[in-house]
Amino acid sequence: MTGKAEHDTVPVLLCAGSALEEGGHAHVWDVLEYGRPQRAFVLRFDGVVRAYINRCLHVPVEMDWQPGEFLDSDKRFIVCSIHGATYEPEDGRCVGGPCGRGRLTAVAVQERQGQVHWYPSRDIRPSAPPKPPANAAAEENPP
Ligand code: FES
Question: Cα–Cα distances in Å, from 75 out to 11, 55, 126, 143?
Fold first, then answer.
């Protein structure tokens, strides 16, 4: 898991683990960070799923070259498409370019039983309320 080691929120399903190939395309989704719309992304690096808010530290813009494409040609670093700020995929730390000494904002994710989930936090919430189970309406309104 990345992000917070402990969490007390209900996990939200993102995608199948098989959809995230090593060094491949990221899954991008919408979140609210402090109530403001943002995009987040999860990718697989060294076999582990890692997720961050899609916002460069240099200028607060989205970083992907093409939708869901964050890694450089060597599949070694996350690189911002605007001015080339370079981040370590393992922890989001800036390692080159105009991003200073900071790091990307991590989002807690976990892969289990072939599915990738993220864990909302106090600051980073789902952009839409989770959908109730398909049979919830029938249970609430019995005939
Ligand atoms: S906006 Fe990302 S490097 Fe400048």
Answer: 28, 19, 29, 56
Give me ligand 1 centre to Cα 82, in Å: 5
pLDDT at 4: 45
Q: How many residues does the chain have?
A: 143
Q: What is the pLDDT of residues 2-55, one digit of tens each?
A: 444 456 789 999 999 999 999 999 999 999 999 999 999 999 999 999 999 999
Residue 91 has a pLDDT of 97
Can you give the residue ranges of every domain in the chain?
12-127
Going by CA atoms, what residue is nearest to atom 1 of ligand 1? 59
- In 20-60, the DSSP E strands lie at 27-33, 36-45, 48-53
Give residue 16 CA to ligand 1 midpoint distance, Å. 30
- Taking the CA of residue 60 as reference, the ligand 1 atom at the shortest distance is 1
In this structure, the residue with its CA closest to atom 4 of ligand 1 is: 83
Q: What CATH class is the domain 12-127?
A: mainly beta
